[in-house]
Design goal:
The complex is a heterotrimer. By secondary structure, chain A is mainly alpha-helical. Chain A has one domain: Cytochrome c oxidase, subunit III, four-helix bundle (Four Helix Bundle (Hemerythrin (Met), subunit A), Up-down Bundle). Helices cover 76% and strands 0% of the residues of chain A. Chain B folds into 2 domains: 59 residues; 34 residues. Chain B starts with 6 loop residues before the first helix and ends in a 6-residue tail after the last helix. The N terminus of chain B is likely disordered. By secondary structure, chain C is mostly helical. Chain C has one domain: Cytochrome c oxidase-like, subunit I domain (Cytochrome C Oxidase, Chain A), CATH 1.20.210. Helices cover 62% and strands 2% of the residues of chain C. Chain C has 18 helices and 4 strands. In chain C, strands 1-2 form a two-stranded antiparallel sheet. A two-stranded antiparallel ribbon of chain C has the order 3-4. In chain C, strand 1 and strand 2 form a beta hairpin. The N and C termini of chain C lie close together (6 Å). The N terminus and C terminus of chain C are likely disordered. At the A-B interface, helix 1, helix 2 and helix 5 of A face helix 2, helix 3 and helix 4 of B.
């Protein structure tokens, strides 16, 4: 392990290759939840359907998550330059935006439950909550990872040369972001527009 | 695993560092993403008619490619990484599309 | 092994035990982990075997009631889960662990601690599943867990959903680990087309795991949510679609079949050329057929659902793709046969098991093709014919190949030979018992005996009863045979004949190192110039194409004057074991719908992760190596 990437067969870092392999399998994970959701769009058992979505509200939280990808990549960039101070700043900004997104999701769930959309209401409700809930858990794990990078770099456990670590967390974070890009369009916008027409 | 002692090889270098984008480029990409998102959201407020859904799908794909290509460095990094991701992505698309088609359009019960 | 001087900072130091139980609990050595997988599998195999004994005892005669229907359902469900998820898959993982680094010329896997993590998750997942017997009853909705029966609390299937998800975490982590290892840690010169076939099959298998496991994870999470948290995914009452569960399950379930058989195919592809003293016939064809099986294996899932709610177009399409997947499988069988054709066959025990594999698997494969014919399928569905088929594939196929691998690589692991005499007794009784148990099931199935039915109905008539009695007698033979194997294994570990380094005159890199394998695997990493590298180091060809031995040490990396290289081995660690204990509260939380337990489990996992991250590394990590001594090679020779 203690050698550079040149000594690996493909000239790639094990950890980056491992992370990409993992992300490849994550598409199958979220894909199944999205498929179930699409199948159950109209299966509302007389309860609330997609018209319950608050598109302006979700747009804002989606936008926040999207912009957190920018701060994430800037954190990696700063780390690659050996600038740990600036890296920590961007990491905090990224985690903060993630927290805002997560707060938005908790708020949204609360509103929906009050309006009668509980997980037991219908297959539509179940698939919506479980899909977006699992995405939210991914964001939560991402925030934990980001705060770990922050703390570990403060106590000297992550050194200026170790920007692969920030890059790994970044890959995960961007992945969580692109999954939301898909969810925002496929779960929220398109069904909502289809209902409006 | 180490298989060498040569000091100049033991130090880690990032083979693609030279081609990495600048912060300014990252910000530009983010601005593009923001504009695309605004366009997406506008389909909710304005009536785009029949083109609304195709437009949303295209915008989604473009945003996906921008984030994956630039922020995840797929454009600049080894192709192996992209292959890993797209194998999973296309396998998921193919399998689930097939399953949905079977469920929706060909689920006659056995007579 | 490394005389580390790094300061012990962070949560704690690293464990240093090099012997005793502590060394096993904290090991990150792929060889030790492989051995632990193997012995854990033996325990679960005994449990699964005992369950099958109960099943056969109940069905030995018509209208028997040794077990209540409730217990019978739990027993056959746990038998299936155990054999699939706790025996065949982890036994393959044992071989992956032990052999992948050795066969590609590496000193360990890419992520040694993650490897230990995989093992502990597997062990605890198995214990978790079995703990259900003490906690109100084991799952009783069969290994496929069809909704909506499985979402009913009566079926105890929450244990199934949570337990299999835990075991799935283990397999997913292992899959990532092995894929990165095979892609990124091959010895110099080991190109893709020089890799042993076992490595190819491992790569395909791990890709299948990588892409199939997330699908079952989703199905199980949905099941869990329905059964415990009141979700409505598969509840027909609110419009949920149970067929969705079937699709998700078989989207995973069919690749799973190939996940279980491909490693055995790889093992047989290693044993046959050695036993026949010929290179594998059509290496490229075998490799591409394996990859094709992996790929097409994703496109045949609905043939498990021909009698379910899928329509005529889907039935026709999946019938075709199912017949099509027999083609690459057939290619492999021909290649194995042609490998033996004209070879100087030595009928050693591993060779016998390999030949047993080919013949039994061919029978299972052919009865499998009959399932592709839709009307035929409807006739056989849920009868013992299906039971016969998949046991011929998984027992006659996968298990024969894997046991052949045990005999073949036993000298590599222990430096001793297993008794050939007992091995042959084991093989012939195993073959006899197997065919006696499962052969008659073809007939009783075609005569209408239903699967998953606690009592053999007397109205099926005397012929079916005789077939069932024969099956039950077969289990007795198999039990005796298994005891012979166990005795052989223990006796050979204690007092086997020393095997030397290369007892079989083998072809692949793992035999290049001494047996038992030294801690660092290879004192010097070999440079690979040929497929079957080790053979080419031992033999050259004369003009007539006959193999003639070459003087030892001819290969360049055997140069005695070469500078000894620096050897870095992974440090042992407490954390994989400590962290994975968190899966217990997490799993029980999912079963009982207790968010406190889930929270405790998650927190435990996170804290364990921190211990993992913070613990010191003797030689730093990839991008922050601890300074090496000034003189190159100063620390080599520590082995």
């Amino acid at each position: 392990m203690a050698a550079g990437v040149e000594t690996t067969t493909m000239g790639l870092d094990h950890r980056k290759l491992g992370m990409w392999t993992f992300l490849g399998s994550e598409f199958l994970f979220f894909g199944a939840f999205v498929s179930a959701y699409l199948l159950y769009l109209d299966t509302t058992a007389g309860g609330p359907g997609v018209e319950i979505f608050d598109i302006p509200f979700t747009s804002i939280s989606s936008f926040v998550l999207l912009m957190s990808s920018l701060t994430m990549v800037l954190a990696h960039h700063a780390h690659a330059q050996g600038d740990l101070r600036r890296m920590r700043l961007w990491i905090l900004a990224t985690a903060g935006q993630g927290a805002v997104f997560l707060g938005g999701q908790v708020f949204e769930f609360n509103v929906f439950v009050r309006e009668g959309l509980t997980i037991s209401e219908s297959p539509f409700a179940s698939s919506f909550y479980v899909l977006t809930g699992f995405h939210g858990m991914h964001v939560f794990v991402g925030i934990l990872l980001l705060m770990s990078v922050y703390v570990l770099s403060l106590i000297g456990k992550i050194k200026p040369t170790q920007h692969v670590k920030t890059e790994m967390i970044g890959l995960y974070w961007h992945f969580v972001d692109i999954v939301w890009v898909v969810i925002f369009t496929v779960v929220y916008l398109i069904p909502e527009i289809a209902v409006l027409e | 695993m180490s298989s060498t002692d040569a000091p100049e090889q033991a130090s880690s270098t990032d083979e693609h560092d030279d081609h990495h984008p600048t912060p300014r480029q990252y910000v530009n990409i983010a601005v593009v993403l923001a504009v695309l998102t605004a366009l997406e959201v506008s389909t909710y407020f304005l009536d785009f008619g029949v083109i609304a859904i195709p437009l949303l799908v295209i915008l989604m794909v473009v945003k996906f490619l921008y984030v994956a290509g630039w922020f995840m460095h797929l454009k600049f990094d080894s192709r192996v990484f992209g292959r890993m991701m797209y194998t999973g992505l296309f396998l998921a698309l193919g399998l689930y599309a097939l399953a949905i088609i079977v469920i929706l359009f060909d689920s006659a019960t056995i007579a | 092994m490394s005389s580390s001087t790094v300061e012990k900072s962070g949560f704690s130091g690293r464990p240093k035990g090099e012997s005793g139980i502590g060394a096993w609990l904290t090991t990150t050595d792929h060889k030790k982990i492989g051995i632990m997988y193997f012995f854990t599998v033996l325990v679960f195999f005994a449990l699964g075997g005992a369950e099958s004994g109960l099943i056969r005892a109940q069905l030995a005669q018509a209208e028997q009631n040794l077990l209540t229907e409730e217990i019978y359902n739990q027993v056959f469900t746990m038998h299936g889960i155990t054999m699939v998820f706790l025996v065949v898959m982890p036994l393959s993982a044992a071989f992956f662990n032990y052999l992948i680094p050795l066969m590609i010329g590496a000193r360990d896997v890419a992520f040694p601690r993650l490897n230990a993590f995989s093992y502990w998750v597997y062990l605890f997942g198995g214990i978790f599943l079995y703990s259900s017997f003490l906690l109100g009853g084991a799952p009783n909705g069969s290994w496929v867990g069809y909704a909506p029966l499985s979402t009913d609390a009566v079926s105890n299937m929450a244990f199934y959903a949570a337990g299999l998800n835990i075991v799935g975490v283990s397999s997913l982590a292992a899959a990532i680990n092995f894929i990165v290892t095979i892609l990124n840690m091959r010895a110099p010169g080991m190109t893709f087309m020089r890799m042993p076939v076992f490595i190819w099959m491992s790569l395909v298998t791990n890709f299948l795991l990588l892409f199939a496991l997330p699908i079952i994870a989703v199905a199980l999470f949905m099941l869990n949510a329905d059964a415990v948290f009141g979700a409505q995914f598969f509840e027909p009452g609110t419009g949920g679609d149970p067929v969705l569960y079937q699709h998700l399950f078989w989207l995973f379930g069919h690749p799973e079949v190939y996940i279980m058989i491909l490693p055995a195919m790889g093992i047989v592809s290693e044993i046959l050329p050695v036993g026949a003293r010929k290179p594998l016939f059509g290496y490229a064809a075998v490799v591409f057929a394996g990859a094709a099986i992996g790929f097409i294996g994703f496109g045949v899932w609905a043939h498990h659902m021909f009698t379910s709610a899928i329509g005529p177009v889907a039935r026709s399409a999946f019938a075709l793709s199912t017949m099509f997947i027999a083609v690459p499988t057939g290619i492999k069988i021909f290649n194995w046969v042609f490998t033996m054709w004209g070879g100087k066959l030595r009928f050693t025990t591993p060779m016998l098991f390999s030949i047993g594999f080919i013949s039994m698997f061919t029978i299972g494969g052919l009865s499998g093709v009959t399932h592709a014919i839709v009307p035929h399928n409807a006739q056989q569905h849920d009868t013992y014919y299906v039971v016969a088929h998949f046991h011929y594939v998984l027992f006659g196929g996968a298990l024969f190949g894997l046991i052949g691998g045990v005999y073949y690589w036993f000298p590599k692991v222990t430096g001793k030979l297993m008794s050939e005499k007992l091995g042959k007794v084991h093989f012939w009784t195993w073959l006899l018992g197997f065919n006696l148990t499962f052969g008659p099931m073809h007939m009783s199935g075609l005569l209408g005996q239903p699967r998953r039915t606690a009592v053999l109905p007397g109205e099926l008539g005397g012929t079916v009863e005789i077939y069932n009695l024969l099956s039950s007698l077969g289990v007795v033979v198999l039990t005796v045979s298994a005891l012979v194997f166990l005795f052989n294994l223990i006796a050979s570990i204690k007092g086997g004949v020393p095997s030397g380094n290369d007892p079989w005159d083998a072809r692949t890199l793992e035999w290049l190192t001494p047996s038992p394998t030294p801690y660092e695997n290879f004192p010097i990493i070999p440079t690979v110039t040929h497929r079957d590298e080790f053979w080419h180091r031992k033999y050259a060809e004369d003009d007539a194409g006959k193999a003639i031995p070459v003087p030892a040490g001819a290969a360049e990396d055997h140069d005695a004057d070469a500078e000894p290289e620096h050897i870095h081995m992974p440090d042992p660690s407490y954390w994989p074991l400590v962290q994975t204990l968190g899966f217990f509260p997490f799993g029980y939380g999912l079963v009982y719908g207790n968010f406190w337990l889930i929270g405790i489990g998650l927190a435990w996992l996170v804290i364990g992760l921190y211990g993992w991250i913070i613990e010191p590394l003797a030689e730093g990590d990839d991008d922050d190596p601890v300074d090496e001594p000034a003189r190159p090679g100063a620390r080599a020779g520590a082995h």
